[in-house]
Amino acid sequence: MKGPLFYSKILLFGEYGIIKDSKGLSIPYNFYNGALKIDDELSDTAKSSNLELTRFSDYLKTLNQNQDIKVQFDVDALQHDISKGLYFDSSIPQGYGVGSSGALVAAIYDKYAIDKITVLENLGREKLLTLKSIFATMESFFHGKSSGLDPLNSYLSLPILINSKEDLEPAGIPSQTSSGKGAVFLLDSGIVGETAPMVNIFMENMKQEGFKNMIKTKFVKHTDACVENFLTGDFKSLFKNIKSLSNTVLDNFKPMIPAKFHDLWKKGIETNDYYLKLCGSGGGGYILGFTEDFEKAKKALSGYKLEVVYTF
């Protein structure tokens, strides 16, 4: 057995801000994907995935008894498949901020949810919010608190615009241009990041008045502007706002930026060759980069592994 493919995602804008009702924009990233598979002979990686699915199935069993979640799972079928050698066959790197657990959650929901909401339905706001809420509860098994956005993106395989916690919609993003010099890219930090500790640091910081104020007056303001600029294809304003956002993150989110990248981050702001921002919760994994001239950014970042996500 091999199930359908579910793709990784990139939250272009909105990391941390969406916890505090900023806008956000999440896009599928088809370079990485995963699918449920059953094999008789399991590799070590597949065995460890199979074991994780065993624990996850126990968690879903408890969710079935929970009146708050608007779905039931066929846990018997899932556990039967696990005993047969079910695992999640994935190329999505874990701890890199591109939604490895989100794709797994989407795949499990797709295969084992009873009376699931399908992608073929007319997905109005209510159904999207229901899906997001189900996915948040499912994904919290993997790293504490989840917005449910990663699995939603993976499940729908569409760009999603987050206007606020209670208002999201599928989004149309400007078409990519192959002739354009500008690019959004991923920079590989070479370090695996963990979501839960980073989110905990953020939540602790939010108890301080100064930090809370900075989130509202600077971080959310720049994030919202970047989302608007990107969706309308106003790239001139986008780079002005990305520079401000990159600066704000460097000043206020230092624990989320691996120490050896602090200078590189600053260099981008000073030279305007590229601007860096967090990809997901930070602490490692990928760092997201924006540049008006990818060739220039490539030279400035020679020695680092870059992957282009979007060109304009």
Task: Name a few traits of the molecule.
312 residues, alpha+beta, Ribosomal Protein S5, domain 2, Alpha-Beta Plaits, 2 domains, five-stranded antiparallel sheet, four-stranded antiparallel sheet, 10 helices, globular, ATP binding
Task: Give structural notes.
With 312 residues, the protein is α+β, with helices and mostly antiparallel strands. The protein folds into two domains: 6-170, Ribosomal Protein S5, domain 2, CATH 3.30.230.10; 183-311, 2-Layer Sandwich (Alpha-Beta Plaits). The protein has ten helices and eleven strands. The strands form three sheets. Strands 1, 2, 4, 6 and 7 form a five-stranded antiparallel beta sheet that branches. It has a four-stranded antiparallel beta sheet with strand order 9-10-8-11. A hairpin with a 2-residue loop joins β6 and β7. α3 crosses α4, α3 packs across α5 and α7 (209-232) packs antiparallel against α8. It is globular and about 55 Å long. The model has no long low-confidence stretch (mean pLDDT 93).
